[in-house]
Amino acid sequence: MYEYIKGTVTDISPEYIVIETGQIGYQIITGNPFSFSSLEGQETKVYLYQHVREDNISLFGFQTAEERYLFKKLLGVSGIGPKSALAIIAAGDPVPLISAIEAEDDVYLTKFPSVGKKTARQIILDLKGKLADVAADQITVQKATKDISDGLPPALEEAVLALEALGYSTRELKKVLPKLEKEVLTSNDYIKLALQLMTK
């Protein structure tokens, strides 16, 4: 099992980043790849989780150990896979998520992609009272259909692509797009604002 990787960020896409170390480029899936934009070309440390399936081995990356811890806790919930777990921790701050779990607020939890009422109840059942030790650090994270991303500023288009990669639907994205278009932000900040609007 890998603990972390330290290397140079050489590529950023809507679904993953590439970190080169020892002349090998590692594809690392992250919730919000564009949170690494300011680090492109620089050496950085990324905490890793290796996910193994019969037909695939994937590396998931996190900027903090706390973010990875929360991801692993969510993976332990029946019905939650890696993609859903990434989308859940993508909101930028674990406090509202932990508060919702502690308050048994399943309505808040069902706002995330692939989380229905049954899965939300399972999250509460499995994790209530078990996340108090997650530090309240800022957790940053994350393809949209071509018709809604066409004509958008590059940073906003990248953000929309990353949000679709997390599983948000065209309908959900169209709802917040007018508010996003009023702002001039980086891809990372567009993603954070969109996630805040969609989880209100």
Automatic annotation (TrEMBL):
KW Oxidoreductase (keyword) present: no
GO cellular component: cytoplasm; Holliday junction helicase complex; Holliday junction resolvase complex
A Gene Ontology biological process term: DNA repair
Helix-hairpin-helix DNA-binding motif class domain boundaries: 72-91, 107-126
Primary residence: cytoplasm
Taxonomy, superkingdom: Bacteria
Recorded GO MF terms: ATP binding; four-way junction DNA binding; four-way junction helicase activity; hydrolase activity
Keywords, alphabetical: ATP-binding, Cytoplasm, DNA damage, DNA recombination, DNA repair, DNA-binding, Helicase, Hydrolase, Nucleotide-binding
Chain intervals for the UniProt region annotation (Domain III): 155-200
Annotated compartments: Cytoplasm
Alphabetical list of Gene3D superfamilies matching this protein: 5' to 3' exonuclease, C-terminal subdomain, DNA helicase RuvA subunit, C-terminal domain, Nucleic acid-binding proteins
Entry text on domains: Has three domains with a flexible linker between the domains II and III and assumes an 'L' shape. Domain III is highly mobile and contacts RuvB.
Family: Belongs to the RuvA family.
Quaternary assembly: Homotetramer. Forms an RuvA(8)-RuvB(12)-Holliday junction (HJ) complex. HJ DNA is sandwiched between 2 RuvA tetramers; dsDNA enters through RuvA and exits via RuvB. An RuvB hexamer assembles on each DNA strand where it exits the tetramer. Each RuvB hexamer is contacted by two RuvA subunits (via domain III) on 2 adjacent RuvB subunits; this complex drives branch migration. In the full resolvosome a probable DNA-RuvA(4)-RuvB(12)-RuvC(2) complex forms which resolves the HJ.
Function recorded in the entry: The RuvA-RuvB-RuvC complex processes Holliday junction (HJ) DNA during genetic recombination and DNA repair, while the RuvA-RuvB complex plays an important role in the rescue of blocked DNA replication forks via replication fork reversal (RFR). RuvA specifically binds to HJ cruciform DNA, conferring on it an open structure. The RuvB hexamer acts as an ATP-dependent pump, pulling dsDNA into and through the RuvAB complex. HJ branch migration allows RuvC to scan DNA until it finds its consensus sequence, where it cleaves and resolves the cruciform DNA.
Designated name of the protein: Holliday junction branch migration complex subunit RuvA
Organism: Listeria booriae
